[in-house]
Amino acid sequence: MFNTSLGIDDLIFLAQGAGMTILVTAIAVAIGTVLGIAFGIFRYQAGPVLAAPVTFVLDLFRSIPLLIQLVLANAFIGTVLRLKMSGFTVACAVLSLYTAAYCAEIVRGGIQAVPSNTRRAARSLGMSWFQDMTHIVLPLATRIALPSWIGLALGVMKDSALVYVVQVTELLKSTQILITRLQEPLFLLLICGAFYFIISFPIARFGGYLEKRWSND
Amino acid sequence: ADMLDDVISSGTLRCAVVLDFPPMGMRDKDNKPAGFDVDYCNDLAKALGVKAEMVETTFPERIPALMSGKVDVGVASTSDTLERAKTVGMSVPYYAFEDAVVANEKSGIKTWEDMKGKTVGATAGTYEAIWLEGKVKEWGTGTFRPYQSQADVFLALSQGQIDATVATTEVANSNIKSGNFPGLVNAGKTPMVPDYVSLFTRRDEYGFINYMNLFINQQVRTGRYAELYHKWIGDGEPADLTIHGVYR
Amino acid sequence: MFHYTFHWNQAFQKLPQMLDGALVTVEIALASMVLGIVFAVLLTGARLSGWRTLSALATGWVEIARNTPALFQIYMAHFGLGSFGIHLSPFTSLLIGITFNNAGYLAENFRGALKAIPETQTRAGRSLGMTGVQAFGWIVLPQMLRISFLPMTNQMVWAVLMTSLGVTVGMNTDLYGVTQALNAISFRTFELFAIAAAIFYAITKIITFGARLLAARLFRY
Amino acid sequence: MIEIEKVRKSFGQLEVLKGIDLTVKNGEVVTIIGGSGSGKSTLLTCINGLEPIDSGSIKVDGQDVHDKRTNLNKLREKIGIVFQQWNAFPHLTVLENVTLAPRKVLKMSKAEAEEIAVRQLRHVGLGEKLSTYPGRLSGGQQQRMAIARALAMSPEYMLFDEVTSALDPQLVGEVLDTLRMLASEGMTMICVTHEMKFAREVSDRVAFFHKGVMAEIAPPEELFGAPKTAELQQFLAATH
Amino acid sequence: MIEIEKVRKSFGQLEVLKGIDLTVKNGEVVTIIGGSGSGKSTLLTCINGLEPIDSGSIKVDGQDVHDKRTNLNKLREKIGIVFQQWNAFPHLTVLENVTLAPRKVLKMSKAEAEEIAVRQLRHVGLGEKLSTYPGRLSGGQQQRMAIARALAMSPEYMLFDEVTSALDPQLVGEVLDTLRMLASEGMTMICVTHEMKFAREVSDRVAFFHKGVMAEIAPPEELFGAPKTAELQQFLAATH
Ligand SMILES: Nc1ncnc2c1ncn2[C@@H]1O[C@H](COP(=O)(O)OP(=O)(O)OP(=O)(O)O)[C@@H](O)[C@H]1O
Ligand SMILES: Nc1ncnc2c1ncn2[C@@H]1O[C@H](COP(=O)(O)OP(=O)(O)OP(=O)(O)O)[C@@H](O)[C@H]1O
Ligand SMILES: [Mg+2]
Ligand SMILES: [Mg+2]
């Protein structure tokens, strides 16, 4: 384990994988959050009946293994529709919707947690629905939802390990490639695990801290 | 335009290659793709006058990668089974393997028949895996485990998670020789019929399939086939790609 | 409209095999949940024990489980332990991986739930002459399980979804493994995985629905 | 002037207001008392159009609140309301709480809004707390901030819904003092309250609600001194 | 008899009880009043051993509460205590709340425990609510249930810690009535309360706590009629 044949090039190779993990995560979380906010507000505002189709579709993304979502999307886009789309694009698209599905729940919960009297106070001051949303509800919902949202973003980063099925070489896949060549599974896996941990742990802690701080006032 | 036109006009040929299958496909010390299949893809691209792009896939994913439009052609040591031919179009064989049993010394396996009752494994979705799983079922004893990649199979084998695997002679020798896996032995040939492997592309791309057939023919005629064999596999004669007694 | 001809028939013929796989998937998920809850209770106890080493070990478990990919954990359970000469079947490796993950998430949850129960509840129990253990068992624990019930349901759904990662350690009898094996032979990728998706969806719905019924029976307050 | 006529309102099956009639003249202070669930809060939220009504009419300065053509946001500018709880916008400082609506709704400049806000906050005794967040304020201070916030819109009417009932007994006094001050300044007010002493002292008229009906309405001496209905007698006895 | 002698108690740096002496005879009702943080609740939790003390001694029927050899669980069976809030076990019905301790601690049979429980619940006026969950009860009913639960252990002493202060004004009366009833039945009680009227009416003696010291103790007429210390005068003035 200590006399490894892991070279500097290999580390760069791993770093590229890590970069891919972060890139895919960043894109998915960015798009997924925007969509999630839209879906979340829609679900809250439209009521259960009108929102039912959206609710159903979003629920699918939370009820089917991500691995299958990726395989199916890949097969559908490429095999059935015969569109030429890179694995990277497919991965980002699926992960974005996957993120959006969870994010919508978080947003809806956040909005619901804003006390109705606070909203009434805003409306009573003559603010319009939109002003109430932008100045009162979303800022407050953000505070309530941010810890869960951080959890979601980290979850997406960890789940992005599955995009190897659409031929995207992210961190875990890069690690497996190096294992193939160097045959030092334990050492390489520990490096890989440590990387995820080093990114995830402080951010998760920060989320916990925010949650504690904001629930106190 | 059909795919042949598309590839030529796009300027890139995207090949599905499996890179944990030395010496056919692997990564060199710079983690760049290398191996018989990689060179073969490069040759095909050169013949078409385009650039080659290697898209790494696992064994189970190589056909889905083609079907979902991620690649134009598979150069991935793909056995030309009739089942697969229902989905993709196969060229004439461009290589032929013989398979050998690779065992962990401790298992005491000396011939392929000793595998009976043991825990064996192979790469999910490969010709060997399908044969071996069939054998385990036929024996009615022992366990078969499919792994996602050849690397995981050898990892499992060297850790002792499985007792033996079936791999092409080339892969078996290359892995044993690499010294990465102490304690592995070649336990002789299997009674499998030689494993002819083809290039594949979409089933309805006759133009392209025709082109590939002629290309394979040219590789043999020009001696490039033998040259690649010596470069990657070693001394000796490359397998005969014709089968006595039938047309193809 | 599509250039693709669906072969649903061929795929549907494999339904019995896939349903057998679904059964294995549910078995693993259930077993990993039961074990996960047991370990989570132990971990929670360890973290509150005040014994430094024990508490640090438990916290380590919880944080690793929560901060690395499940795929990584399952891979480690097979090949990581394999490096130490511990050989586990794919089934066991998968079960260990998912249990490890479940226990970590649930322990964190239990800790939060405990915090949400006012200390006066224990005090009220103790004032009635109950021992600490009695007060915990009769008063705190039931309330903790109720607060954690929804998260436990979610974790159960997660456990089902995580079984799909078993293929990386050679699992071929669960729903995803069976589907992949069938796909390797026929390559009706879309059809086969669409059916698998529908089965997974049904399983998760049955779980959430069942949990709701159970909750209505268990928690009438 | 607020004119409430035959207002009926149900939530699903439950009829919460069963035909309420009430006219509040400018400068008048009307207090509403009554048991829990008798519909007091509901009436207030109907007055500024936060809740629709089923029948009857509510007119503020002659304008029908529940007419579709009424611009409610506009109308609400002149009706301030303060609730029992969660009045503060916790993510904004005290000053921002008060300036938000003048700036966004009345489109005042920041300086202008702040000038008014500071004046109103001083008025309710919060001149020192401008850049504090509500989370750091006591409940009584939060309620006074909410009053200042409503006043900053220069409303002509103020509605108060049990503004002291979520407060610790020690803090009740400071909020009631603020209300007394407003009353003495001639603000038209409707106050729902449980504080009988306050009601007696400050109101021109006190209304007693019982199960969605305004069972009695009279000047305080009369209502408290000689309750007519058995329900009011009981209610007053219970709250001693 | 409860004998409290020179009891001192600190939380970290903060000395909360600074030498308290108090003897409560059987059948006596002692009320404790005093400002927030003066150590009233702390004293009660020390009496039944929920909190350890730093020095001094507390004896109940001659048995030292803080002696290591004392079986506290046993001792607590004869000291009932009811807190300000979160007394009810929300996951159990009213009947189960009351029978839990008799069954698990006193090892009564289910039938026996239920018989006692029903009797006590009727006693506090909850005979109709046996299979209701506490979440469905009003705050006052919850507190009365907590009292019944303590009574079901047949305690000889009852400690009450501001049992009405989390309640709506309407609900205070019903709980105080229950306490009055207990007092009239001769139960030995220590009640911490903010309700001066109640204290005056029901107590044999009233103790005034101030900053961890028992500043005054006297029969109610004397204590309320002629407060000696400036602190008590101030305190009484503030609570009018
Ligand atoms: N949004 C709502 N949906 C359904 N029912 C409601 C709603 N708001 C109030 N109610 C019901 O209407 C009735 C009257 O409520 P309201 O809040 O007006 O009473 P109140 O007189 O203000 O009582 P309190 O003194 O407790 O504040 C109650 O039974 C309440 O449960
Ligand atoms: N567990 C504890 N840890 C630290 N400090 C405590 C603890 N319990 C009480 N205190 C502190 O001890 C002091 C006395 O508290 P106590 O609850 O006895 O006062 P009290 O007289 O009952 O007041 P109140 O009328 O507000 O209930 C307070 O300053 C309180 O903050
Ligand atoms: Mg109300
Ligand atoms: Mg107290």
Brief overview:
The complex is a heteropentamer, with one copy of chain A (217 residues), one copy of chain B (248 residues), one copy of chain C (221 residues) and two copies of chain D (240 residues). Chain A is mostly helical and 217 residues long. Chain A has eight helices and no strands.
Textual characterization of the structure:
The complex is a heteropentamer, with 1 copy of chain A (217 residues), 1 copy of chain B (248 residues), 1 copy of chain C (221 residues) and 2 copies of chain D (240 residues). The model of chain A has no long low-confidence stretch (mean pLDDT 89). The termini of chain A are far apart. Helix content of chain A is 83%, strand content 0%. Chain A has one domain: MetI-like (MetI-like fold, Orthogonal Bundle). With 217 residues, chain A is mainly α. Chain B is of the alpha/beta class. Chain B contains 9 helices and 12 strands. In chain B, strand 2 and strand 3 form a beta hairpin. Chain B is globular. The mean pLDDT of chain B is 90. Chain C has a single domain, classed as Orthogonal Bundle (MetI-like fold), CATH 1.10.3720.10. Chain C has 10 helices and no strands. The relative contact order of chain C is 0.15. The model of chain C has no long low-confidence stretch (mean pLDDT 91). The interface between A and C is medium-sized, with 33 and 35 residues. The structure holds adenosine-5'-triphosphate (2 copies) and magnesium ion (2 copies). Chain C: This is ABC transporter permease. Chain C: Belongs to the binding-protein-dependent transport system permease family. HisMQ subfamily. Chain C: Keywords: Amino-acid transport, Cell membrane, Membrane, Transmembrane, Transmembrane helix, Transport. Chain C: GO terms for molecular function: L-cystine transmembrane transporter activity.
Topology, pairings included?
The complex is a heteropentamer, with 1 copy of chain A (217 residues), 1 copy of chain B (248 residues), 1 copy of chain C (221 residues) and 2 copies of chain D (240 residues).
Chain B: H1 3-10, E1 12-17, E2 26-27, E3 33-34, H2 36-48, E4 51-56, H3 62-67, E5 73-79, H4 82-85, E6 88-97, E7 99-104, E8 119-123, H5 127-139, E9 143-147, H6 150-159, E10 164-168, H7 169-178, E11 184-189, E12 195-202, H8 206-221, H9 224-232
Chain C: H1 8-12, H2 15-48, H3 52-67, H4 70-82, H5 90-116, H6 119-127, H7 132-147, H8 149-162, H9 175-186, H10 189-218
Helix pairs in contact in C: 2-3, 2-5, 2-8, 2-9, 2-10, 3-5, 4-5, 5-7, 5-8, 6-7, 8-10, 9-10
Chain D: E1 2-11, E2 14-24, E3 29-34, H1 40-47, E4 55-60, E5 63-64, H2 72-76, E6 79-82, H3 94-104, H4 110-123, H5 139-151, E7 157-161, H6 169-184, E8 188-192, H7 196-202, E9 205-210, E10 213-218, H8 220-225, H9 230-238
Parallel strand pairs in D: 3-8, 3-9, 6-7, 7-8
Antiparallel strand pairs in D: 1-2, 1-4, 4-5, 9-10
Helix pairs in contact in D: 3-4, 3-5, 4-5, 5-6
GO molecular function (chain C): L-cystine transmembrane transporter activity
Subcellular location (chain C): Cell inner membrane; Cell membrane
Pfam family, one (chain C): BPD_transp_1
